[in-house]
Amino acid sequence: MEVLKYDESHNEIWKKLISQQRDGPVRFEQEGRNTYQRDFDRILFSNYFRRMQQKTQVFPLNLNTLVHNRMTHSFETSTVGRSLGQLVKQVLKNSIDPQNSELIGLIDQIDSIVCASCLAHDLGNPPFGHLGEDKKGKILFPKLSQEQENEKIPKEFEGLEELVIKDCAKKQNFVSQGDEKADYLYFDGNANTFRIIASQYGKRRGLYLSYSTIASTVKYPWGTKECEQKHSKSSVQKSEIKNKKAEKLSPYRSFRQRKIRHKKSGYFERDREIFEKIFTKLNLKGEDGFYRHPLSFLVEAADDICYHVMDMEDAFKIEIIQDTQATEQYENLHQESQKIISSFERLNQKFSTKETGKSNKNSSTGMGTTNSQNDNENNRDKNENEKENKNGNSIKNIQKIKLTQQITSTKQSPKNKHEEDSRWRKNNMDIDHHISKKRAILINDLIWVAYYQFCYKYTEIMEHKFFDNLLDSAFEEYKIRTKKKKSSWELFQEFSRENIYRGDSLLKIGINGKIILSEILRFFYTAWSECKPIKKEIQEILPIQFFPMIKQNKNIFSQNNDLPLTYILDFISQMDDFYAFELYQKIVGEKLQNSPTKILFD
């Protein structure tokens, strides 16, 4: 028997949160697919999604055909998100009155919503991986950004800043004036994703996704304007006072909110109207701003699981790290995840016994634990942690090391080179299988950790009092209970930052990608701001859909219809890596001898 402390007041909340409303033309709804499965199909067959096949996720695409690109990452994230949605859907359905068929029918579509949102979550990321996200604002406004005040402007940016600032005073329709300047100071892939899935070009184009799918994709329910305001000293001080009050109630409640509030945003200022329309319709508007959709926590967790775990395997495949390092990181995180899962199951069993008068070993998720139960779990986790520290390496770790040694060693000397090559391939296949198995086990562990944490924080989430990441908060709470300095989740991410993301190959793609993006931006901005024949070249490059206010191509560059910088950035952010490189070749006026991968990554 599953025990779930469900408040009947949540019925009406879920009826508003799960909305089939969408903008765009009304069409005949065919049977066999629900609204959110249509969302999934629209994303899958869109040009935006197809371009992600040649967009870098983390590692350069030429290093190994098996490394992830944005497309494969999105597919895997949608699969994990669907699993999380199915778990949450089932536990909610078991807690609702069976006679409430209308609500059960809505809850039954949660997994489809999460799956579609996961598939769309990276559509707005620009070329060259995470490089493009944080460089656009610095390219256009290298000194206006407070984060750059004390930094020296790279040579490739010199002169561009003066050009932009000079034209700010000349052109009234320049989008950097006023509030929309923040859109470029704090350009973010998340905000650009919202623009793609929620906005329409010229009111004729767009994905027209359902409101629930769009809202579930938004991790940060504030815009670029709020990011700019948060940088003022007075706003930061007020925010710190509020956060200190929150910390008295919960030592881990606001740690992540403080960290990302200044850097990330969920929508551009120019898209504020459509954002407020959608979130107001879903009843996500409060007195102090807008709230996250509850299902967005599942989307975020699925992204975190695939992003961190799969990057470790990719790093092993391209020989950035050793198999022993990957195995150790996977195993340590697996061990701690199992302890967290066990503690959740014990809490659920106690809650189930209290509610039903009997023990239920196979009970699923329970919510609403008491302080005394939490204290008992804290003591149990603390004792387990102390016992583990005394014993040193576990038996599983020893077996892991032995297995790795057996795989990498050869018992007999080969008779010839062919036998040696054959043995080498077999051993490496065994290592790959071993790492893949560890990775699969860990993904399953983290799915259950995220699911249990969602259920444990369910009341706070529905009351809009939970602000953190599900995985971060689960491991943070475990660290506090066991009085550890750092959780395995933190150590896992630190290892990735130090040994993977700061490697030579990623530094090279950062430097060369920065040059390519800055040159493209410089070209388009110069051509737009100055009335010169070069503007004819833009006419040949930019597709017509990026000029919604212009009916005929011949009027694009007239004096009264200047090309807004908004649509230039829309165009650039939707490029894939290789198209950006080819466009860079056209701009510099010569065909480079090296291939894109040579120029970008070697």
Automatic annotation (TrEMBL):
PANTHER family assigned: DEOXYGUANOSINETRIPHOSPHATE TRIPHOSPHOHYDROLASE, DEOXYNUCLEOSIDE TRIPHOSPHATE TRIPHOSPHOHYDROLASE
Top-level taxon: Eukaryota
Keyword Hydrolase found: yes
Q: Which UniProt keywords apply?
A: Hydrolase
Bias-annotated ranges (Basic and acidic residues): 377-390
- Which Gene Ontology terms describe the biological processes this protein takes part in? dGTP catabolic process
Write out the GO MF terms.
dGTPase activity
Write down the Gene3D superfamilies for this protein, in alphabetical order.
Answer: eoxyguanosinetriphosphate triphosphohydrolase domain-like, Hypothetical protein af1432, putative deoxyguanosinetriphosphate triphosphohydrolase like domain
Specify the protein name. Answer: Deoxyguanosinetriphosphate triphosphohydrolase
Among NCBIfam families, the record links this protein to:
dGTP_triPase
Instruction: Provide the residue span(s) of the region labelled Disordered.
Output: 351-423
Q: Where is the composition biased (Polar residues)?
A: 359-370, 402-413
What is the originating organism of this protein?
Anaeramoeba flamelloides
> Which SUPFAM superfamilies does this one have?
HD-domain/PDEase-like
HD/PDEase domain location: 66-317
